[in-house]
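re: that chain from earlier
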Amino acid sequence: MEYSKGTIGRVFMVRVDHGEDLLSELEGLAVTENIQSAVFMLLGAVGSAELVVGPKKNSIPSEPIWASCDEPYEVMGIGNIFLDQGHPKIHLHIGAGRGEDVKIGCMRGDSETFMVFEICIMEIDGIQALRAFESERGFSPINFCP
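^ sequence. v structure.
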């Protein structure tokens, strides 16, 4: 285990509107506001989305299982923002439901907003952390800088 300690910095309340791409909007805000370390929570709905809902096999690196939300789903999620090669990387896990159909996973790719998303972003001050791709793991975990 590794960890770092920081404090809450700026807090942003954000609204992403119908038809806008959630992940692109969050990434754009992080660039505009120079957000390098943050955690966020969100509520809203997607009109369409792509999720990784698990690995195909119990192996590392893993091959993802993909699921789609092709019509409106209610969503709640939690995520973080850290730099990956100098650019903000959004890591967002959501629970999405439509009637009895429920999907839980990591949102990647398509993320079209249905109606609205409301997001609370809490910047973390005092943490020096970056994402760096590790080929043996097959993803970019958080690495803490001294």
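The mean pLDDT is 95.
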